[in-house]
Specification:
The complex is a heterodimer. By secondary structure, chain A is of the alpha/beta class. In chain A, 51% of the residues lie in helices and 12% in strands. The N and C termini of chain A lie far apart (53 Å). Chain B is α+β, with helices and mostly antiparallel strands. In chain B, the strands form three sheets. In chain B, strands 3-5-4 form a three-stranded antiparallel sheet. Chain B has a three-stranded antiparallel sheet with strand order 6-7-8, covered by helices on one side. Chain B has a two-stranded antiparallel sheet with strand order 1-2. The chains are: A alpha/beta, B alpha+beta. Chains A and B meet through helix 2, strand 2, helix 3 and helix 4 of A and helix 4 and helix 5 of B.
Chain lengths: 239, 209
């Protein structure tokens, strides 16, 4: 029997708190939450947790999206058959958001924020006064500054944080409980990949398989020795 | 044992909507048309396949939960209701006493999470899909992954071997809708979005019994 505890990663907790306060805000306050940060920082995990807590709708944007594609994707996520025109679709989305009281999470928002499709966001927000959570890359706040009507409706800005040592320890413990990984090795991994959670996960996986191959029950920096740490950089060419 | 008479969902005659869903849609339709909501009208519009008592039970539950309000209740006349709280397209899942049905929340959370987190092992899925109120156990997630993969909803990105868990990923084109496919007792996967049984696991006892 395994009992899961929710991995209390920093970014997961940060977003959960922000969404909580947006969902329970007094009606006169705006309802936008923006989380931004480099890819691989665990924003999607944070999104999954916040989405499950609040039964939020979730849409992941694509580079090629037009206004229409954007709206159809949202309606599909809601299980609603789209009507014909764009403005009817905005009304459908807005009605469902305000009636259900469920938030909507829009991931990879950098793909639409510089395009006409961004106006869909403003329209939906204005028509629903719902809780919108935008998640995207580092430049999203700068892009949003140009969309004044959207920008001043942000209740909370949540910069995604690089993984802390606690995050790495927690991740190692929950993913690979059978192998004890020492803090000095985990700290080395963390600094080498600059706190990028995705690369930390790759390294933990490699450490774990190496440990299984060598029958280690415990790995520290010494045991790991000269073995490499995956940083995403291609290896230097040797003469 | 209380559940033995329950028909498998896919055998219910109302098509892919689910009984609460079609009743709820009927009530919203009446509400939009400005008409009073009665058990009979809801039954005619959205539940003719079933006993009228089921409509009555659901509406009693909705009233207890505050979704419906009685507007006329006189001896000898049909009780009329209005929609007091319209929560959108999804039918509220309430019992006759008005309490919320939370069965299936874990599955709903897994189905939502699968779309969000990219590739995952069943263990990672269980962790990412758990909330304090509804935890997802790892064996549950494992079963669900197996069934979804069997139906072609998930692809295997890394085949598992002893000690190495299988990694899965959602096939985006196979995402059929927001309702989570459910494993039925016959060990088959039913997709409420399309109303179809999409996978049957062959059990070793076949041909026996």
């Amino acid at each position: 029997m395994s009992v899961n505890t929710i991995v209390p990663l920093t970014n997961v907790a940060l977003l959960a708190q922000a969404v909580e306060s947006a969902a329970n805000r007094p009606p006169e306050l705006p309802g936008l939450v923006v989380m931004y940060g480099p890819s691989g920082y665990g924003k999607s995990l944070a999104a999954a947790y916040a989405a499950n807590l609040h039964r939020a709708y979730y849409v992941e944007c694509r580079e090629s999206w037009t206004k229409k594609a954007f709206l159809i994707a949202i309606l599909r996520e809601m299980g609603i058959i789209p009507m014909k025109t764009l403005s009817e679709m905005v009304d459908q989305v807005a009605e469902q958001l305000s009636r259900s009281g469920r938030p909507i999470i829009i991931d990879d928002v950098q793909y639409v924020i510089d395009k006409a499709a961004a106006n869909v966001l403003t329209d939906i927000y204005n028509a629903s006064q719902g809780t919108l959570i935008l998640i995207g890359e580092e430049r999203v706040p700068a892009s949003m500054a140009r969309l004044e009507r959207l920008h001043n409706r942000v209740l909370e800005w949540v910069p995604a944080q690089a993984a802390s040592l606690e995050d790495v320890i927690e991740l190692a413990r929950s993913s690979y409980p059978d192998v004890e990984m020492d803090e000095d090795l985990l700290e080395e991994v963390r600094t080498r990949v600059k706190g990028c959670l995705r690369r930390i996960a790759v390294n933990l996986y490699r450490i774990h398989s190496e440990a299984l191959n060598n029958n280690w029950e415990r790995v520290d920096l010494n045991t790991w020795g000269e073995r490499t740490i995956h940083t995403g950089q291609p290896p230097a060419r040797r003469a | 044992m209380a559940n033995v008479t329950r028909k498998p969902v896919h055998l219910e005659a109302q098509g892919p909507k689910g009984d609460r869903q079609s009743m709820w849609e009927a009530m919203r339709k009446l509400h939009k048309a400005g008409q009073p909501i009665t058990v009979r009208k809801v039954w005619e519009l959205g539940a003719e396949w079933g006993p009228r008592g089921r409509v009555r039970d659901y509406m009693t539950g909705l009233e207890a939960a505050g979704y419906l309000r009685v507007t006329r209740q006189e001896a000898g006349k049909t009780t009329e209701y209005e929609l007091a709280r319209d929560c959108g397209v999804d039918a509220p899942r309430v019992r006759k006493d008005g309490t919320e049905v939370t069965q299936g929340r874990g599955r709903e959370q897994m189905w939502r999470t699968v779309k969000i987190i990219g590739d995952f092992t069943s263990r990672e899925l269980a962790q990412a899909a758990s909330t304090p109120a509804h935890e997802v156990a790892e064996p549950t997630a494992k079963d669900y992954c197996l069934m979804l993969a069997g139906a072609g909803y998930l692809t295997i990105t890394r085949q598992g071997s002893p000690g190495v868990p299988t990694r899965y990923r959602l096939v985006p084109s196979r995402w059929t809708g927001p309702r989570a496919p459910m494993i039925q007792r016959l060990k088959q996967l039913y997709d409420p979005n399309t109303g179809e049984v999409v996978y049957r696991r062959h059990v070793a006892t076949e041909g026996g019994e």
